[in-house]
């Protein structure tokens, strides 16, 4: 799942991929915002991504759906 965090006063966003579900990520972000604690997520390489609550401008949490890979029906003559 792809995650994008916008950081206040920083032009570039922080993007990473995680094995967590969209609901798990949303719950962690929501809980951190309520508690005032940093947002701490683990990416698919095992690295911790820690963002202070006050630095978060926005969060884009990808969907859990997988998209088929391939060409599908190309429709021929």
From TrEMBL:
Protein name as annotated: DUF3107 domain-containing protein
InterPro entries, per the entry: DUF3107
One Pfam family of this chain: DUF3107
């Amino acid at each position: 799942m792809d995650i994008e965090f916008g950081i206040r006063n920083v032009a570039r966003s922080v993007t990473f991929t995680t094995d967590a579900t969209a609901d798990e990520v949303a719950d962690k972000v929501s809980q951190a915002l309520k508690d005032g604690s940093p947002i701490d997520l683990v990416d698919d390489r095992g690295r911790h991504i820690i963002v202070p609550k006050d630095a978060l401008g926005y969060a884009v949490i990808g969907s859990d759906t997988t998209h088929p890979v391939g060409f599908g029906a190309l429709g021929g003559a």
